[in-house]
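User: Teach me something about this protein's shape.
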Amino acid sequence: MAEAKPVILIVEDDLDVADMLNAYFRVQGYEVLTVNWGEDAIRSCNNSLPALVILDIRLPDIDGYEVARRLRSNRRTKEIPIIFLTEKRNRADRLQGLELGADDYITKPFDVQELRLRVRNALRRSAQGTLTNPVTNLPEGPLVEERLEECLEKEDWALLMVSLENLDGFRETYGFVASDDVLRAISLMIHNAVRDLGGTSDFVGQLSPTEFVIVTHPGALSDLTERIRLRLEQSLDYFYPIKDRAREEKRGKRLSIRINQLQADQGPFKNLGQLKAQLSKQRV
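Assistant: First, the predicted structure itself:
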């Protein structure tokens, strides 16, 4: 499975600069989005979190300082790295940007190679600091990878992956607050099931924003699967207003749960990528 490219959001009203940066960073292996207005930048970040924002200060509607202020004041977007790219050279302007939590501040005209290195460094710092999911507080990223890699060296383990499907459609209809509430509730129910039925060394983490993984003992796998399936499927209706429950089910876009299992005796597995790929195929 190919690794997802980091997404860079470029907020720049100079179309020539925006097009140049778009082309340059795509060649460097990034996915690039560009917007020309501050409000569009905020909307884009709320719809899909970028890995980093390159932000001009002078924009046609609200300025870059206001964009940064609003991103930093929102729990969902507050951790996105921001690099200011601007013609403002005064020390006071630079300090204002840094006080708002910007990760870096580059003045025009700029050296695109320098910008590339600063983007790379900001992304590295961000990756090192991202150890728990901001919505559920469950381990993610390196912590999950480390725990799964331990399975490659052991002979007695079981994995359970719980995927929440159709969350994007739910978010479009009911908003980010409601979708975050769903994720927190799902994570809590999974955690409680593991606490009640699993062992003291069991692990719960997030593989992706909508995928939860449990590392447990083969003897607990069946009971854990049934408990989690029952609790989650009984709860999904309650995330919808009563008037919408039948409608969403009829449209076929209702929240649903997919469960996958994998055990050590289904291996051996050469590496983490192979283990993940096999887990994604073992639906129950």
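Now, about its shape. The beta strands are 7-11, 31-35, 52-55, 82-86, 104-107, 158-165, 203-208, 211-216, 256-263. The CA atoms of residues 202 and 242 lie 36 Å apart. If you'd like, I can walk through any region in more detail.
User: That's plenty for now, thanks!
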